[in-house]
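Database export, one record per block. Field names are fixed; values are copied verbatim from the stored entry.
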Amino acid sequence: MSNRLILHIEPSSDGSNPLFQAFQTYWQATLSTSTGPTTAQSYRPHTTVTGYWQPQPGSPPPHEASTIISQILQKTADNVDPNTSSAYHSALRVGPPIPFADGSGLVLPLQPPNSLLTFVTEISISLSAIYATSLRPKTINHMSLAYFSYENAGDRKMSAPELAEFAALSEQFVVPVWNGRQEEWGWDLVLLEQTVPSPAVGVPHGWLEHGRWRITKP
């Protein structure tokens, strides 16, 4: 059976989005806390576009999904470059770090443009059809800074001191960049195959990229 696939949106790592480096610095700083790394560090900085889906024997190869993704990105885009046919969406808006209401973690709230929400709906329908599954479209409304989740054991809430510790680090390393010129930040849509599940909290998953699209105009 093939490995699971998933779609993420990530801050571009080419220097155009300061959140990428801010997350790296913040996560490195959390290693010296009394709590240590959290489940958020098992992933690259991202917001989830769809839930995982499991290709079955006879399912189309990932490059076919990539072709469909490219078509729908262009169909739903805010702007298409007439010279390159590259499709661009408006940038996501990022708010300052906030805790989940139930105390389970710390996140950066996101406000996606309507065009991206349309893309999420349409790509979920299209990929559900070709993979004979039911993809869960996501609201792309946050990026996780810290939380705990355990395989087959669910999530656990953070204590008030733990939340305070992570919040203080986010104030130091993440807040200084979030109020910059966000309309110029780069964001990438990424089609990923999970090759190796994380064996422990804070240990990265193994990923194989099958497609990466710059979705905001450089």
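Remark 1: The longest strand covers residues 187-196.
Remark 2: Helices lie at 18-30, 62-76, 114-130, 160-173, 175-178.
End of record.
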